[in-house]
Design brief:
The protein has helices at about 25-40, 110-115, 120-130, 150-155; strands spanning about 5, 15-20, 60-70, 75-85, 90-100, 160, 165-170, 185-190. It is α+β, with helices and mostly antiparallel strands. The strands form two sheets. The protein has a five-stranded mixed beta sheet with strand order 1-2-3-4-5, covered by helices on one side. The chain has a three-stranded antiparallel beta sheet with strand order 6-7-8, covered by helices on one side.
């Protein structure tokens, strides 16, 4: 599903493009639709879109694309990459996750996954902070990055789980500069 370019309140030509997969699982497909189309107030009604062929000078670009999905038992996470450009030198990119519990047929949060595995949020917080002190992250983090990690429930919102590990994703500027890109901390289940 894609929305074409259209004129908006931004001065100039704007483009919003969204591409999401259909998994053939009614609840998950509906949840993805609700997250990316039905709940998106920025998008005009499809009938109100005025397509254009000239895409050379966008003053605003909002692109959300399916990136990958991961599954751990009943827990499915769909990763979406987003890019936003509102002028200037660089656009902003980030990763977002959409989580769905196949058994309970509803979205889930990190706490739900951890509770199902009898793991505390405090233990996860310890392990993430321990990993971030390792050599793999030297020079990639803000000197005061720990001050940005004061609420694990909020700090670790972007994550996915596989049968082997739990991965926390930190978007740019969350704990490191743009030059470090997206930072990823993976923790094997046996370390918990």
């Amino acid at each position: 599903r894609t929305f074409e370019e259209y004129e908006t309140e931004y001065d100039g030509l704007s483009k919003t493009e969204i591409k999401i997969p259909l998994f053939g699982i009614d609840g998950l497909d509906q949840h993805l639709y609700e997250q990316y189309f039905a709940a998106n107030e920025v998008l005009p009604d499809y009938e109100d879109v005025n397509p254009t062929k000239d895409t050379s000078e966008f003053s605003y670009v909002d692109s959300r694309m399916y990136h990958d999905y991961h599954q751990h038992g009943r827990f499915v996470t769909v990763l979406m990459n987003s890019y936003l450009y509102e002028g200037g030198v660089n656009g902003m990119y980030f990763t977002r996750n959409i989580n769905y519990d196949l058994e309970k047929e509803r979205p889930f949060e990190l706490r739900d996954l951890l509770n199902a595995k009898n793991i505390s949020l405090e233990r996860l917080d310890e392990l993430v902070k321990e990993k971030l002190k390792g050599d793999n992250y030297k020079g990639a983090l803000f000197p005061d990055y720990e001050s940005n990690l004061d609420s694990p429930a909020l700090d670790y919102q972007v994550f996915y789980a596989t049968d082997y590990e739990l991965t926390i994703i930190f978007n740019i500027y969350q704990i490191g500069p743009r030059s470090s890109g997206t930072l990823v901390v993976s923790i094997p289940w046996e370390e918990f």
